[in-house]
Amino acid sequence: MEYTILILALPVLSFLLLALAGMKMSHRLAGTIGTLVLGVVAVLSYLTAYQYFSAPRMADGTYATLIPYHITWLPFTETLHIDMGILLDPISVMMLVVISTVSLMVHLYSFGYMKGERGFQRYYAYLSLFTFSMLGLVVATNIFQMYVFWELVGVSSYLLIGFYYTKPEAISASKKAFIVTRFADLGFLIGILIYGYYMGTFTFTPDQQMLMQGGMMLPWALGLMFVGGAGKSAMFPLHIWLPDAMEGPTPVSALIHAATMVVAGVYQVARMFTLYMGYAPETIHIVAYVGAFTAFYAAAVACAQSDIKRVLAFSTISQIGFMMVALGVCTSAHPHEGGLGYMASMFHLFTHAMFKALLFLGAGCIIHAVHSNEMSTMGGLRKYMPITHWTFLIACLAISGIPPFSGFFSKDEILTACFAFSPVIGWVMTVIAGMTSFYMFRLYYCIFWGKENKELHAAHTPHESPLTMTLPLMILAAITCVAGFIPFGHFVSSNGTSYDIHLDWSVAGTSIVVALIAIALATWMYLREDQPVADALQRTFPKLHRAAYKRFYMDELWLFVTKKIIFRCVSAPLAWFDRHVIDQFLNFLAWATNALGEEVQPLQNGRIQTYTLWFLGGIVVLTLMLLLV
Amino acid sequence: MEIHVIHYLIVSTVMLFCGIYGFFTRKNLLAILISVELILNATNINFAVFNRYLYPDALEGHFFSLFGIAIAAAETAVAIAIIINVYRNVKHVLTDDINELKG
Amino acid sequence: MDISLLDIAFYVVAAVIIFFSVMAVTTGRIVRSATYLLFVLFGTGGIYSMLGYTYLGAVQLIVYAGGIVVLYVFSILLTQSDRNMRYKIPLAKFLTVLLTCLVGAGLVIFLLVSNHFALVTIPQGVELPATEIGHALIGADKYQFVLPFEVVSVLLLACMIGAIMIARKQK
């Protein structure tokens, strides 16, 4: 498996090439380089996955954990050292496949979407950087390497969100994303430090002795690490950056803010899963509650948004909430006794990455066609954009959990795991799944059915996108159709052994019924050209609609907390103190030095007589001192 | 009565400090140079006196004085040449006014 | 308490040196200053002779008193330096210099006195033979000085050329 180093090396080389020499290249050449490199990376990832999973299992029925590369980078003590390396185990190989697939699709898609944009080469360089960081994150051999790449992911996300750097919204969105995730990463860092301090190691798999030493602090360490994960994965209340991050180019949203980066938090929790199970079972339930609330909140907000990408962003938050819940409801590492959620979460991560990337790319096609993000400017587009329409419908059905599309299978496993943990959580998640179907079909009908926008069509008839953009849609749609039949449990499960997915028809049936009801409701409300029911509802509950549209004022709450409380009550006095006490003291020092200099300056008058006089006086005084002392 | 070595040394000390005093108070370059000659003379006397009193068999101090005189002559020649050149350029030889070359 | 003639001569010479040293640096006329310097140089030559270094005394008279002072007088006349003697130095500076010099001189004399030099007598009136000096000056052995002698000769030559170069008129 030595070639796995290429999976990391090629994107970084491509980034360097495009960043340093990109401006000299034509758009076509730069895009081709980026896409070809990603193609090779994808092929290598598939090869890795094939070789890894076709290798014989070990005696206890798990796949061997391989570490083809390992460098001790910063040794502190015998056990505490920061390493760099590549770790292959079922989830990291699965992530390699997900990331390289989605990234390849996005590279291909961007050819059409970004055509003629200024900074096309820069865009591809950033994409390569992001892919590199994300791949490095998933193959990290220890927490610190994960953290390093975690931050690199943050940086490349910042660069990509702020790609349109002349647009003020994009700049503030990129800053917001960076600051919010950085703030959360502080928790991650403190968690790592606690982990390193008490356990004396940074590895994912501490031995028994280390656990004896630091097991007490493990819940805290893991909880703080989850804060970082919650920031990246946009869990409530740190989700506020993700909707704004939609200011970036749409393919970027598909890659980073739907499929890969935002699941880093889920991946992190999954990575630490055995430790959670053994030493911090309560902490992982906190993850479940946070995830459930986030899923509900985001679904509620998504029902009222009018910007197509915002709907998808909240839908992403909600779906990541599902994954978190699935991880959080695990009570043991055994897949048959409470460990089902782990497999379900990873499965959902996999399928969601595909269909959410598909949704975003589809949204990109639509935005490309109508030059607007607002749903009200769309409508009736199904005649003009058939491929986009059909692939979008497939993705909507998948996310709603309608068989035989992939989302049905993964979501069903999540719901089964939830019901096994507690019926309350199970029913709540089922309702949220229903809400998901509702808002997705609301979106679907508003875009593709309903009233045509005559004004727009008069000026410029929407048309189907070029092949570079529709091809990724079709590939992703095909994956979405068949991914559900992958025997995922064979590859990934909570304790590594093979696990047969079997549908629990009572849960599955319920979820299908709920989804169908929600779709029917959405059809009834939004299929027609005018939408009397929706308007009536909006009129009946104006405050509720307004609150949901304003995302229940979470941004305002954050602004209140930061501006009114932190800035005014903490920062302002500190700033005053800094300006009036510390600065003044330093000013005084500077003034005193200056004044002293002014006093001493006449000594330096350039006359050798004066100098020698001082010299002689010095000698006399020194001699006197020697005599007297 | 034998003359004690200190008596010679006191004479040279007084001569030395007269030279130093002149060096600081004079502004005329030639007057400064005269003061410097006093200082040099005082040191030459010291060399000779120490040689004669403390190491009567050696000759180092004696020759040091001799070379000192020669070098003082050389120094004076160059210094006076410079002073004359300065005078030619600025028409007087006061230290305060010769600052064209000051950094 | 027998005071030899040589003792009297020494104290007279010492008094002359001290007096004219002070005068040389305090007089307001530069020509007088040069003249007082001449007397000081004569006195120094006398001291060398009293120490028995007659040759050194002769060199002192010839080179210093005969050569250098003449140079001074010429350059004083050439630069009309007397005009430039009329100046005042600030009182504060004057006092500083005076204090420094007095304290310094007092310090040095105190150190000399407190050093307890052994009273070593020297043969009075016995001069260092010139042949010995000659041998030492041109010998190349240890404690002989042909190398410094040659170096000084080259230095003098260089100074001569340098002085001419500096002082000659610019074309």
Automatic annotation (TrEMBL), chain B:
Q: Which GO terms describe its cellular component?
A: NADH dehydrogenase complex; plasma membrane
InterPro entries noted in UniProt: NADH_UbQ_OxRdtase_chain4L/K, NUOK/Mnh_C1-like
Q: Report the catalytic activity.
A: a quinone + NADH + 5 H(+)(in) = a quinol + NAD(+) + 4 H(+)(out)
Report the locations given in the UniProt record.
Answer: Cell membrane; Membrane
Superkingdom, natural source? Bacteria
Q: Where is the signal peptide?
A: none
Membrane topology, record value: Multi-pass membrane protein
Instruction: Extract the GO molecular function terms from the UniProt entry.
Output: NADH dehydrogenase (quinone) (non-electrogenic) activity; quinone binding
Q: Does the keyword NAD apply?
A: yes
Q: What does this protein do?
A: NDH-1 shuttles electrons from NADH, via FMN and iron-sulfur (Fe-S) centers, to quinones in the respiratory chain. The immediate electron acceptor for the enzyme in this species is believed to be ubiquinone. Couples the redox reaction to proton translocation (for every two electrons transferred, four hydrogen ions are translocated across the cytoplasmic membrane), and thus conserves the redox energy in a proton gradient.
Q: Which family does the entry's similarity section mention?
A: Belongs to the complex I subunit 4L family.
- Protein name, per record: NADH-quinone oxidoreductase subunit K
UniProtKB/TrEMBL annotation, chain C:
Gene Ontology molecular function, alphabetical? NADH dehydrogenase (ubiquinone) activity; oxidoreductase activity; quinone binding
State the annotated membrane topology for this chain.
Multi-pass membrane protein
| Keyword Cell membrane annotated | yes
Pfam entry (one): Oxidored_q3
Gene Ontology cellular component list: plasma membrane
**Keyword annotations from UniProtKB, A to Z:** Cell membrane, Membrane, NAD, Oxidoreductase, Quinone, Transmembrane, Transmembrane helix
**Compartment annotation:** Cell membrane
> Does Ligase count among this protein's keywords?
no
Catalytic reaction list? a quinone + NADH + 5 H(+)(in) = a quinol + NAD(+) + 4 H(+)(out)
The EC number of this protein is: 7.1.1.-
Q: Give the UniProt family note.
A: Belongs to the complex I subunit 6 family.
Q: What PANTHER family does the record point to?
A: NADH-UBIQUINONE OXIDOREDUCTASE CHAIN 6 (PTHR33269)
Q: Under which name does UniProt file this protein?
A: NADH-quinone oxidoreductase subunit J
Report the source organism: Candidatus Paraprevotella stercoravium
